[in-house]
Amino acid sequence: MKEKDKKIRKVIIINGPNLNLLGNREEKIYGVKSFDDVFCELEKIAENSGVKLLYFQSNKEGEIIDKIHECIKNVGFIIINPGALTHYSYSIHDAILSSKIPAVEVHISNIFKREEWRRKSVISPSVSGVISGFGTYSYNLALMYAVNYLNI
To answer: What's the pTM?
Structure first.
């Protein structure tokens, strides 16, 4: 394989607004684990798969967009949970498309079983797929997909 054809073996998880409160907010919907706990589990999977796992969380749309831009040519795959920005951030949608980095959208809850306004994602058309409704295990599924993608 030519050097330029090698995939960057870094995966970043980007979490949007209020996901820093996991373990403390609406436990019936989001569970009792903090994201630090979830990330520790994911790091083990990544390490065993030969992938470097990175993490970023922000409550600010612009910071998320800036992080996606920073990932260009530095990260091989994005796992994104945009939180409430899912439903109206065309800027994040455009940043993902512009980055040309493969991505998966993740949601802890099943957004299609929730309030009507949560059922529409403006991010989905910019990603390979959506994983929704499996609790924090949704991140595990996304990481498994990312590892598989990077190994192809």
So the answer is: 0.91
